[in-house]
Amino acid sequence: MTLSPILSTERARALVGRFHSMSVLVAGDLMLDQFVIGRVSRISPEAPVPVVEHDHDEYRIGGAGNVAHNVRALGGRVELVGLVGRDDAAGRLRGEMLLAGMGVDGLVADPARPTTTKQRIVTTRNQQVARVDFESDAEAAGEVEAALIERARRAIAHADAVVVSDYLKGAVTRGLVAAVVEGARSRGIPVLVDPKIPHIDYYAGATVVTPNHHEAETAAHMRIRNDDDARRAARVFIERARCQGVLITRGEHGMSMVDASGEAHYATVAREVADVTGAGDTVIAALALGLAAGAALPEAAQLANHAAGIVVGRFGPSTVSPAELLAEFAEQGTRA
Fold first, then answer.
1. Catalytic residue (one of 29, 110, 166, 281)
2. Beta strand 117-123 with 30-43: parallel, antiparallel or unpaired?
3. Which of 123, 141, 176, 203 keeps 20 to 30 A from 110, CA to CA?
4. Distant-in-sequence, close-in-space partners of 273: CB < 8 Å, separation ≥ 6
5. Which are the contacts of 287, defined by CB distance < 8 A and separation ≥ 6?
6. How far apart are CA 268 and CA 279, in angstroms?
7. Structural domain contains residue 46
8. What is the pTM (predicted TM-score) of this model?
């Protein structure tokens, strides 16, 4: 596998400069990330666990919502289609979305499920003590699935790219993905999927799927130890998923891309890793905007690689601005 040539600062600036006029539909599993933050100074006398003295709570948009948040932070427009419950968490999630400049018309309320919430108990030193999940993973069906499909079809009419963000929490069904792929094909726009392996046969026709290396290993039934292994795993993944291309995110080993145009490996640009939470969301958001802006997949993958290198240096799900992304490319040019 060859190392991809460096994307020039000038080309990166031209692509990122188009992000503001691009619109991305994100369809998938929405989550509310809640951080219960406090101080730890003693161990509980009831059990060998720390006592967290509550200081404050923080809320962030997670799951497919974090993909949409990343699109917005990078300057793009976004429409979000997904499921919520009829509960307080849904109200909080809607409020956070509005604050982030996202519309809420694509949200479908399902009274039979809670709004997916990840409640993390965290110290003021950013050490996670525990996590409590509120969720239902039953796939949407009947009127709820029909409502998701209707909202997605409506949004595709003015989208420049579509992202399916699958966390196995019920919003991503075979019918939804088929409708998205069909609608995108009719308009000539790309479909990107952040996958979960139990749904691998849902993704037929997608432009590019972005498994992490564990997911790629599972799908290909092989270990990925080097770039050549990643190339072989990507080709198996393409055959199994019946998609056009694959970008495997490989942590400290970078990313590996295979599609009809060829194959490439991208070394990581991260200088430090504080938290990989949500890095995959940043990757697919930057990749979608890059493709929407006219980048070839190898170019969009380099944009995504640099965006991921920035967010892993921060705690919790995070985002990247166009200025930060371009500064990374400028610095790369200085180092080259």
1. 281
2. parallel
3. 203
4. 252, 312, 313
5. 192, 208, 210, 247, 300, 301, 303, 304
6. 13
7. no
8. 0.91
